[in-house]
Specification:
11 strands, nine-stranded mixed beta sheet, 2 domains, 250 residues, Spore Coat Polysaccharide Biosynthesis Protein SpsA, Chain A, globular
Length: 250
């Protein structure tokens, strides 16, 4: 007997790549839920045209949006995927096989396409993400780079194939996302009472660049690998700089 599976996707102005995501997801799921934060583009129409159930609500944060989507899903087992991700053919086949067996939480290998090039090193690959889980047993937690609760990671299976992540079409988009995410991270660290000493603001970006570019072989991805390592280091600098500014203004 095949396991029934619902897909949950959160969106805001994702119309330009949502169709590719949904066309792939529809091959493995029995129900698709899109939680939209009042997009101003054609996201909602694209989702409906692809057979998804669309619910609109104000932005409540990554974890809450996803948990609300899980509550609206018809089935207990959830496939969580981002609007800019696409299941490749091998992963689609792996999920269909997963549905035929006794289900257990499962993870995907995510491979990111950066300005037209897939990144295979530098800490971005294999970017293993847990994406199949039972909503009765696990919930999303955290403000950014959220995690699932109550999961024993030793018992997670990693399916064959790739979840293709079409993240950034321009370097400017990467910088904008870094600015957005580091603001969230800095506030989260501030609320946890974390500090940002001078040595951390100076040396952490250097360590981040060297780790990703040299030790994690980012240089093998050529110019894209260097750009990714450089902006990741800059994001580390921004995070601690913004955390310091929070503490100074307290």
């Amino acid at each position: 007997m095949s396991t029934s599976l619902s897909a949950v996707i959160i969106t805001f102005n994702e119309g330009h790549h949502l169709e590719k995501c949904l066309r792939a997801v529809s091959q493995v799921t029995d129900d698709i839920v899109v939680v939209d934060s009042f997009s101003t583009d054609n996201t909602v129409q694209v989702a409906k045209d692809c057979g998804a159930s669309v619910f609109q609500q104000s932005w409540e944060g990554y974890s809450q949006q996803k948990n609300d989507g899980n509550a609206m899903a018809q089935h207990d087992w959830i496939l969580s995927i981002d609007a800019d991700e696409v299941l490749d053919a091998e992963l689609i086949e792996a999920i269909l096989n997963w549905k035929k067996n006794t289900p257990q939480p499962a993870a995907f290998k995510r491979m990111t396409n950066y300005c037209g090039n897939f990144i295979r090193h530098g800490g971005w690959y294999p970017d293993i993400k847990i994406r199949l889980f039972n909503k009765k047993l696990s919930q999303w937690e955290g403000t950014i780079h959220e995690n699932l609760s109550n999961l024993n990671k030793e018992n997670i299976c990693v399916l064959n194939g790739h979840c293709l992540h079409y993240s950034y079409y321009t370097v400017e988009q990467h910088y904008a996302q870094a600015d957005k995410f580091t603001s969230i991270q800095a506030l989260d660290l501030f609320n946890q009472g974390k500090k940002s000493p001078l040595y951390k603001r100076i040396f952490s970006p250097m360590v981040k660049f060297c780790t990703d570019y040299f030790f994690r072989l980012g240089f093998l991805d050529g110019k894209s690998g260097f750009t990714v390592a450089r902006i990741s280091a800059f994001a580390t600098h921004l995070k601690y700089k913004k955390l310091h500014e929070h503490r100074v203004s307290k």
